[in-house]
Amino acid sequence: MRVVLQRVTEAAVRVDDAVVGEIGPGLVALVGIGSGDLAADVDALAAKTAALRIFDTADGARCVADVAGAVLVISQFTLLADTRRGNRPSWTGAASPDHARPLVERFATNLEDRGITVARGIFGAHMVVSLVNDGPVTIVLDREGAKSTK
């Protein structure tokens, strides 16, 4: 599992020219699920996403919930691309849609259960994502890194 987080001042995702999810200040979470990923991996990365203190305030660094921010969750299997051989990426490590869809939803629901406002893209759709990166701050999380931070 891999999650790319971008701190944003605003973000939106469109499908067929219609906005299906948008947020103001907060995080865009691009979520890639691997074939061997489990619910425990998802829970660990959702907890890490919620707890990251990457928002600057007068009182110091705060997490997304502390600053009343939101998270836009977008599934992105291409994060699991293997480019070690040749110039054509392989996505054999990415989970099948039947395996990935419920885990992406679990990630979003886990954040909501922590009191964070969550917007979503549409799983499997061709999406157009627009965002204004704040900082810029971009952080890559993976399941190995999340396990070591418990």
Summarize the SSE layout with pairings.
Elements (H helix, E strand, L loop, with lengths): L1 E14 L2 E6 L2 E7 L6 H13 L3 E3 L2 E3 L7 E6 L21 H17 L3 E4 L7 E15 H5 L3
Parallel strand pairs: 3-6, 6-7
Antiparallel strand pairs: 1-2, 1-3, 1-8, 4-5
Helix pairs in contact: 1-2
Structural commentary:
The mean pLDDT is 93. Helix 1 packs parallel to helix 2 (97-113). This protein has helices at residues 39-51, 97-113, 143-147; strands at 2-15, 18-23, 26-32, 55-57, 60-62, 70-75, 117-120, 128-142. The protein is α/β, with parallel strands linked by helices and 150 residues long. Strands 1, 2, 3, 6, 7 and 8 form a 6-stranded mixed sheet that branches. Strands 4-5 form a two-stranded antiparallel sheet.
Shape: globular
Please report which band the strand proportion falls in: under 5%, 5-15%, 15-25%, 25-35%, 35-45% or over 45%.
35-45%
How many H/I helical runs? 3
Query: Can you give the mean pLDDT?
Result: 93
Structural class, from secondary structure content?
A: alpha/beta
Residue runs with pLDDT of under 50 for 5 or more positions: none
Helix content: 10-25%
Give the termini separation.
16 Å
The oligomeric state of the chains shown is single chain
**Record field, number of beta strands:** 8
SSE string? EEEHEEEHEEH
Nearest-angstrom radius of gyration?
A: 15 Å
* Biggest β-sheet strands, sense, barrel: 6 strands, mixed
